[in-house]
Amino acid sequence: MSLIHRSILLLLGLGLSAQTAAAPELNLYSARNEALIQPLLERFTEQTGIKVNLVTGKADALLKRLKSEGRNSPADLLLTTDAGRLHRAVEAGVTQPFSSELLDKVVPANYRDPQGHWVGLSVRSRPILYVKGKVEPSELSSYEALSDAKWKGRICIRSSSNIYNQSLIASMIAANGEAETEKWAKGLVANLALPPKGGDRDQIKAAASGQCDIAIANTYYLAGMLNSSESDQVDAASKMAVFWPNQNGRGAHVNISGAAITRSSKNPGAAVKLLEFLVSEASQQWYAEVNGEYPVRAGVAVGDILKGWGEFKADTLNLGQLGELNAEAVMLMDRAGWR
Amino acid sequence: MRVNYWSISSSGIALILAIPLFVVVANIFVPAGEVWQHLAETVLRDYVVNSLLLMVGVAIISLTLGVGTAWLVSMTEFPGRRVFEWALLLPMAIPAYIIAYTYTGMLDFAGPVQTTLRELTGWGYGDYWFPEVRSLEGAAIMLALVLYPYIYLLARAAFLSQSLCVLEVSRSLGNGPWRTFFSVGLPLARPAIAAGLSLVLMETLADYGTVQYFGVDTFTTGIFRTWYGLDNAPAAAQLAAILLLFVVVLVTLERYSRRQARYHDSGRGKSSLTRLPLHGWGRLSATLFCLATLLFGFLLPAGQLGLWAIDTYEEMIDQRFATLVFHTLELAVLASLLALITALLLNYARRLQPNRTVRFAVRAAGMGYAIPGTVIAVGVVIPFGWFDNTLDSWMREQFDISTGLLLSGTLAALLFAYLVRFLAVSLHAVESGLERITPSMDEAARAMGERPAAILGRIHIPMLKGSLITALLLVFVDVLKELPATLILRPFNFNTLAVRAYELAADERLADAASAALAIVIAGLIPVILLSRSLSQSREEKK
Is B81 a member of any domain? Predict the structure, then answer.
């Protein structure tokens, strides 16, 4: 071995020993933003002594980073805000299966990957919201019925570039087939009050201010508006009521935020611990309180706002399907002229 | 031999900086499946048409605002001129998507303006017409309002450094101020205005936040829809490569159109031009024009952010906030210095060796500005990951030791991405300054036996002071606002103000995002004011 080789070794040896001497740590790539995950991570560190390092970003970009970093990636976990992206991570081969009796027990099977690569952490529902007094709940029934001509010019929904719409359409393709769903999407587009723009809160505001009678939006946005410090947001949200569609059929569309353990993880044991912590009753309650999402485990008490919307039957489709059908859903919406 | 050294090192640097673009372009050869047919049949036409219309709209508005105000404040005298001189740069400190959010908040159907209007008149939905903020036109206005300062800045520097003799001659020949503007001032400032406009247009093409929020489908939103939605990264990269091609054509056309023209000034005879005092309507309209630009580009949106921040700052400014500010400034300082040094080196190499290789290399290094930051970031992640893993495998084989990731996930990777993305800004600023220095100076110095490095240090850098400060501060402000590359590439536990503002705004919590957004604006104000003062001084010194 030459002198150069030996000195490189020495230098690296120093660097590496410094790294391995540190206390156990977890590295998290999160599509959930800092404000909605950091407080939980801090509690986890308090309880277990395991420090959690965080990078937030968009799921696809984080996935790209994970892929490029390969087996040397420092990430232990990938956290996303929809099931489709978890499915993509599995397809890309950057995750590993894990097993935990606790997770299997408390998280319903359709919110878990059948192969055990990911698990849901919170449930996000996307029902129909209507303006009180303008629409009677008896007029509403299912997503499918929204393509009826009686809703012409009365519906607000955001752009089809948004993942929640893509997932909704994917779930409809799974239930009704592609041809049927495309026909439906064309009908829905014809009923839109406005060209799709803005976010879910914008749809709620548009409905509340009289531009349309129905908005399709995730419930946690409505909860966020009701809890807002701005009075106009509270006023707008107060005019709206939640209708749970498809209760006589497959149930209302839901998605999850969830997490996978990476293949490169050096500490899968600790990673499972974090996942178990995130589905603990206290963490689940926190999700419900702070962001108005539904707990992924049964029997967790939720706040007054969520309670007020009542219990509902959720679609039991395995959410991995949403990922499989996502591209198909986007192309379908392109063809239907849903911008 | 010395000359070769310049040319080789500059080509080498430019080549390294072009790696992310090569990564993007290389995707042309990856089969993307049937998705192209689908795109061509459904949405591609919209992407192209909307992008073109957006560029035309932004160009018209930003030229009117930028060149108009620059001429007024540098050549005429009217009430408020001294304040407008620096204040007109302020909109630059506001990220485009933030101004889009604030105007939507104000002017949307459900916003305070229209709600008040309805309450006063008793009208309902559909009873009246009101301009729609979230539209293609709206997006063009939003982008132009925050981007015109690039044109203003470069045009004003050009107007101020114009040989005043030329303008005096024009005036003494009986040309009025308008005639002088159109027949002398404007043509002489053309390289600078063109440089400013090309920055504006490149930034427009790269914009994602504004058009996405406004529901305008452009080429850039198409790239992300194809990547995120269709999960087809090769096709998305191919779209990005087309975007790149588009920019190449744009830049080439611009250069071709002024291929013969050379605008050097002799550096002599700079006496102070008395500003033309305006009277009557001219005086009033000059003040109003500048005031309106400032009002819509800065005062209104910043005021709205301020109002929101008052409501929410107690919750939003926590202990971490100071760290955010520190990280943001740290990145901006490092990146702007790096970009300045690189730009100076590349531009000077091109001046010494205007051969094809160097010219191409410099051009390629400046293309990153038109590419959405996320695409650049992916172009950085892939080669860095490859390098790290290849080295790691080799080390494992040779020494049974893992080196892990040396570059990926470090600040170095992030700074590299900034350099790729923003080098165009400093390149343009330095170039437009360097172009105005006549080559006869270099020749004279060389004839006296000075070496190129000494000429750069002793002649060009002192003469370029204004341009160099411009280059430095422009990149500084750009990095303050930068979001997408920062999101993907930053190390663990490392956030910036832009990341904080974006995360809250993307969660549709505009009021909560206001404190961080306002902090970006304030951090941007200081360099903007410095910038303006340095420009004014460059004129004073010449008196």
Answer: yes
- Pairing status of strand A155-156 against strand A254-262: unpaired
Residue among B125, B134, B229 whose CB faces A211 most closely: B125
Q: What is the number of domains present in chain B?
A: 1
Q: How much is the average pLDDT of A217-245?
A: 93
Distance from CA of A47 to the nearest CA of B (A): 20
B362 located within any domain: no
Q: Of chain A residues 126-185, which have a CB less than 8 A from chain B?
A: 159-161, 163, 166
DSSP E strands: which ranges in chain A? 25-30, 51-56, 77-80, 95-96, 118-125, 128-131, 155-156, 214-216, 240-243, 254-262, 294-295
Q: Which domains does chain A have, with CATH numbers?
A: 21-124+255-308 (3.40.190.10), 125-252+320-335 (3.40.190.10)
Any domain includes B360:
no
| Residue among A13, A64, A339 whose CB faces B378 most closely | A64
**Is B282 an 8 Å CB contact of chain A?**
no
CATH of residue B79:
1.10.3720.10
**Residue B426 domain-assigned (yes or no):** no
Tokens (6 digits) for B454: 């000494």
pLDDT digits (tens, 9 = 90+) for A276-318: 999 999 999 998 988 899 999 988 988 899 999 999 999 999 9
Contacts of A54 in chain B (CB under 8 A): 492-493
Nearest to A117 by CA among A260, A322, A296, A258: A260
Q: What is the complex's ipTM, to 2 decimals?
A: 0.84
Token couple for A66: 């994970």
What is the extent of the structural domain holding B102?
Answer: 35-258
The beta-carbon neighbor of A326 closest among B125, B231, B392 is B231
